[in-house]
């Protein structure tokens, strides 16, 4: 359990006690939200506007470097999978995400 907390700590999600719960809550919210896009309920062009999805890009950029390890440690190969599919499966989202990912990576380097 302590090791799992360490991985979420490295991802930078939340601060202090409840980090895992925060990650699950935020991931769950965005998982539901992107399901609308993945199932054609909402258009990609509408959904993936930065003003709406900035947090989605930011959260995924923070966990992406540790995603395989987090999935393995939590024994949940589908953790953040819908977010990954939605972002990586859309040219619009991928282009925006790459910008956010670069900023998050730069933030990590300054710590």
Describe the structure concisely for a colleague.
The protein is mainly alpha-helical and 111 residues long. Helices cover 75% and strands 0% of the residues.
Describe the structure.
- The protein is an all-alpha fold and 111 residues long.
- The chain has seven helices and no strands.
- It has helices at residues 2-11, 19-38, 44-47, 50-63, 67-73, 81-88, 91-110.
- Helix 2 crosses helix 6 and helix 4 crosses helix 7.
- The mean pLDDT is 85.
Rg of Cα set = 14 Å
Distance between the termini: 25 Å
Give the SSE string.
HHHHHHH
Quantity of strands, as a count: 0
- The residue ranges in which pLDDT falls below 50 over 5 or more consecutive positions are none
Q: Give the overall form.
A: globular
The assigned structural class equals mainly alpha
Q: Major β-sheet, in short? A: none
Strand content: under 5%
Q: Can you give the helix content as a percent range?
A: over 70%
Number of helical regions: 7
Mean of all residue-level pLDDT scores: 85
Present the secondary structure layout.
Layout lengths: L1 H10 L7 H20 L5 H4 L2 H14 L3 H7 L7 H8 L2 H20 L1
Helix pairs in contact: 2-6, 4-7
Please describe the structure with a list of short key phrases separated by commas or semicolons.
mainly alpha, 111 residues, 7 helices
């Amino acid at each position: 359990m302590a090791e799992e907390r360490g991985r979420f700590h490295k991802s930078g999600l939340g601060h202090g006690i409840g980090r895992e719960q925060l990650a699950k809550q935020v991931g769950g919210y965005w998982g539901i939200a992107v399901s609308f896009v993945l199932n054609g309920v909402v258009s990609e062009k509408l959904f993936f506007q930065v003003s709406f999805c900035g947090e989605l890009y930011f959260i995924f950029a923070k966990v992406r470097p540790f995603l395989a390890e987090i999935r393995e440690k939590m024994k949940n190969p589908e953790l953040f999978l819908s977010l990954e599919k939605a972002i990586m499966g859309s040219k619009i989202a991928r282009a925006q995400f790459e910008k956010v990912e670069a900023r998050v990576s730069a933030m990590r380097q300054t710590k």
